[in-house]
Amino acid sequence: MRNILTLALLCLTVVACSKGSPGNQRKKIKLTPEMVDAVMSQQNISCPSGDCPDAVARLFVINFKDADESANCTGTLIGEKLLLTNSHCIDMGSLEKVCDGFYAVFKTELGGHEVARCEKVLYRNTHRARNRRDLADDDYALIELDRTVRAKPLEIAREGFAPGDKVHPYVIDHISAFDSRIVKLSCTVSAESSNGRDNALLNCPAIGGNSGSAIFDTDGRVAGVLYAGEDTTVDETSAYDVRVAAPTISLGFSMDRILEDLDAWL
Fold first, then answer.
1. pLDDT digit string (tens) for 82-119?
2. Cβ(171)–Cβ(208) under 8 Å?
3. Is 58 exposed, middle or buried, given 0-12, 13-18 or 19+ CB atoms closer than 10 A?
4. Long-range contacts from 217-221, C-beta under 8 angstroms, 24+ separation
5. Cβ count near 17 (within 10 Å)
């Protein structure tokens, strides 16, 4: 569910960028840390449901040499400086390259926000390096942030979830380079897949940019992580009531599966 921002718009918002003439090969738009910092300073994250955890983060993974190869995802704080997301959100290049362009934006009280960067990637499955390995194996990642944020880390439901459970993924809809919203989905866990690693989530309309969203149990604990389920009937511009009601299936990992790889850091 990687969502590639039109960072050309981001670039045009911050500085004037030249364009190639019609018919020419696509001209790569280069970004600087100063340009991206300017956009980070103007983030606005809304919460239409009124009950969004401040541990849910809007993620930018920036390719400074080619803006169109940048991405958006969702992440969740599960430790003092530990952020859970998807592996495919950070599969571009070396770990150092990922950290250089990684920004996590957290909503704060009274409509503010704060930004943290990547200090280290603690776990990532390099799917591209494994000849497009099936994402259903272990598409999750753990990132150590470079600073402590005011958001309170969320409790982990170590037992994860089971078929029949009601769960609530909190996902980020990336409306523009500056504006986003946290969307609370209400889903039902279905049976495990044949590989025993992931589950289908019913009535769970995930769209581009929702990758890496935590799946919450009814007690507000992190019971898993969303990783797939492209919905084409709604998008980030859809009215909120319409957005959350689309009857679509998504896919997610239960926390007990995730801990098989990440428990050493938690």
1. 999 999 999 877 888 889 999 999 999 877 899 999 99
2. no
3. buried
4. 217/157, 217/161, 217/165, 217/167, 217/168, 218/165, 218/166, 218/167, 218/168, 219/157, 220/53, 220/154, 220/155, 221/154, 221/155, 221/156, 221/157
5. 16
Phi, psi of 102, rounded to the nearest 5 degrees: -95, 130
pLDDT of residue 193: 81
Residue 261 CB contacts under 8 Å (≥ 6 apart), including other chains: 123, 138, 140
Q: Which domains does the chain have, with CATH numbers?
A: 7-145 (2.40.10.10), 166-265 (2.40.10)
Q: CB neighbours (10 Å) of residue 209?
A: 27
pLDDT tens digit sequence for 228-263: 987 889 999 999 999 999 999 999 999 999 999 999
What percent of the chain lies above the pLDDT cut of 90?
A: 71
> What is the CA 82 to chain-centroid distance, rounded?
14
pLDDT score, position 191: 87
Lowest-confidence region among 190-199, 205-214, 253-262? 190-199
Fill in the amino acid letter for 217.
D
Give Cα separations from 141 to 105, 193, 240 (angstroms): 17, 21, 29
Query: Which amino acid type is present at position 139?
Result: D
Dist CA 152 CA 263 (whole Å): 20
Give the whole-angstrom CA distance, residue 222 versus residue 219: 9
Show the tokens assigned to 166: 């009601």
Query: What is the distance between the alpha carbons of residues 155 and 250, in angstroms, rounded to a whole number?
Result: 23
pLDDT band at 184 (very low <50, low <70, confident <90, very high): very high
